[in-house]
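Hi R.,

Quick one: here's the Segregation and condensation protein A sequence you asked about.
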Amino acid sequence: MKMYNVKLEVFEGPFDLLFHLIEKNEIDLMDIPISVILEQYMEYIKTLQEMDLNVASEFIVMAATLLEIKSKMLLPKQQFKGQQLEMEEVDPREELVTKLIEYKKYKIIAQTFKEMYKIGSRFFREEPEVKYIDKKIALNYSSEDIYKAYLKVISKNNAREDEIEIKKDEYTVENKIKELLVKLVKKPFLWFSELIKKSRAKGEIIVSFIAVLELVRLNKIVAEQKTTYGDILIKSFRRGEKNEQ
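And here's the predicted structure, written out as tokens:
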């Protein structure tokens, strides 16, 4: 008996499958052809069943939902007349479209974090060397002395907390993205160390790094790091593409 290898895409849930079919067919979310999507959706489930794979209950529920929407769309539109006003029925796809739009938002966010993790994984943190001192120190203090010292530290901390003033950051990811793109118009490439040269706080450096990650995700720039702990070379996507060719 001849054996065949079948490669079947795996989807995390029914919305993942639906979104894949919509993107594959280049369908507008606001005008989903339910019949087309339902046919392809059922084809996927049928393939799973033919391969004796368990089909999760949520996939079956979604199939039933699509069938219900299709049946409602096949019915003639009912119009209710009253006080010379006609009220058409709500589009049966409306609730599904709302959920798909929400799913798309989270999918984009998840993809952004995935890209950030990919780039961030190229940076390594060196573990500090732990030194042990093999020496016993005698403490010539009574419990009362220790308690007094404790009270003194607490009073200092309380006084310090009263003086804390929270200042709103003057920089945002959007501003850093604009700043970086302007710099790349003026020169073909830029080092990350140049970008953060005038940064006044660690928070500003972090925002600059996030801006770089976001532009990499959007294919606006190319970021390269030749060595571990090395500086990051930043180039505009078009210029980086030309250089590689």
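DSSP finds nine helices and five strands in the chain.

Cheers,
M.
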